[in-house]
Amino acid sequence: xxxxxxxxxxxxxxxxxxxxxxxxxxxxxxxxxxxxxxxxxxxxxxxxxxxxxxxxxxxxxxxxxxxxxxxxxxxxxxxxxxxxxxxxxxxxxxxxxxxxxxxxxxxxxxxxxxxxxxxxxxxxxxxxxxxxxxxxxxxxxxxxxxxxxxxxxxxxxxxxxxxxxxxxxxxxxxxxxxxxxxxxxxxxxxxxxxxxxxxxxxxxxxxxxxxxxxxxxxxxxxxxxxxxxxxxxxxxxxxxxxxxxxxxxxxxxxxxxxxxxxxxxxxxxxxxxxxxxxxxxxxxxxxxxxxxxxxxxxxxxxxxxxxxxxxxxxxxxxxxxxxxxxxxxxxxxxxxxxxxxxxxxxxxxxxxxxxxxxxxxxxxxxxxxxxxxxxxxxxxxxxxxxxxxxxxxxxxxxxxxxxxxxxxxxxxxxxxxxxxxxxxxxxxxxxxxxxxxxxxxxxxxxxxxxxxxxxxxxxxxxxxxxxxxxxxxxxxxxxxxxxxxxxxxx
Length: 490
Known about the structure:
Layout: H1 3-15, E1 22-23, E2 30-38, E3 48-56, E4 66-71, H2 85-88, H3 94-97, E5 98-104, E6 115-117, H4 134-152, H5 161-174, E7 180-185, H6 187-198, E8 203-209, H7 218-241, H8 244-247, H9 253-271, H10 275-287, H11 294-309, H12 313-320, E9 335-337, H13 339-343, H14 353-366, E10 404-408, H15 417-426, E11 429-434, H16 448-460, E12 467-471
Parallel strand pairs: 4-5, 4-7, 7-8, 8-10, 10-11, 11-12
Antiparallel strand pairs: 1-2, 2-3, 3-5, 6-9
Helix pairs in contact: 5-6, 7-9, 9-10, 9-11, 11-12
């Protein structure tokens, strides 16, 4: 059903509403409002939801060129930070000529929220679970899905990428703009690409940063994260092997990884359970994409291995104490935001559990770092309690100008093939951040090269070359002999 058809069936009630803006109590110039949107755009006369929006007006009204809408990552809302993005981008020159607008997508933040019940788990968290744990992992995930069913109700099937794109167009209408410009990061890239597909004549300049692959379903997207992390681990191992005099982990990448596995085995043997090894696997996966932390990772592998072999439990706990866990736990029965579980059901998941178990065995072997096996295990979509209300959109560019893609070649969350595929599909120019594990780069990570190119495009309409590279954060300044600090060419 087209948008114009929807207008004739009652959507104009929503598009003509007037936001009641109120100033932020903590950020001068930032203002907040709520608007109403249909729960189901196919039934605009039915129930409605609330969307939280924000605005930072252009500081130079005489040069104002319109509204620039932002959408951050997820799906999952990034903790409800969507409407705070204009304040984070205030320091860019965009603020001079654009009204900067953010919003909490439906289901997140202080917009109408989609919730799921926290459910108990019956299996200990293990980055390398044995086959004997697979059935219990599946049962735990089935219960997670049921918690979403109980708490999410009818709202759950309407938390979709297409509906968020429709919400964006409603925001455009409410703000009185014929067109909007857009910057989206991570999941926001998919929403932006879908918006351009559905409403291309209403999109002006657009930037998609850290791209979801336009042709992958959500299961492929999840699994690709394991391979992306492993690529970073391999690059770190290669760098570390060249500096064996400094780290003493091995003179070849294979020997460095043998040292990593030796530390993992020692941690498992010392603790008698998977907890320490699991934290270690997480640390390897989390630190390897971050080039400036490569020396820290090398030291951590060596020090943890020595402490584990010595049975020094206190030292092991100290070394692992600051490492990131998979996901924070919550008490069973409490409610939590469940946008991730809703959106990722918009593409179909296999129902044959053996497909998941096969892939879990594969990633347990190849990609234990960064919890790769978790990217392959059954998910709430496995149980089909939500059937997608409409097919996923095949994105295409029609009716709007050439835009920009920004992608790090080592992005651990949105694998770099996604950025290349999105650029090719849409005919956009591609900025590749080389030798970098950055994620969500423009305006947020401090990369001056990327910021300059993107600002020139958004401010002046100047596109960089069709394919251009920018450096990421440098590797540690350690020479191969490990004894003096020299530039290693990065």
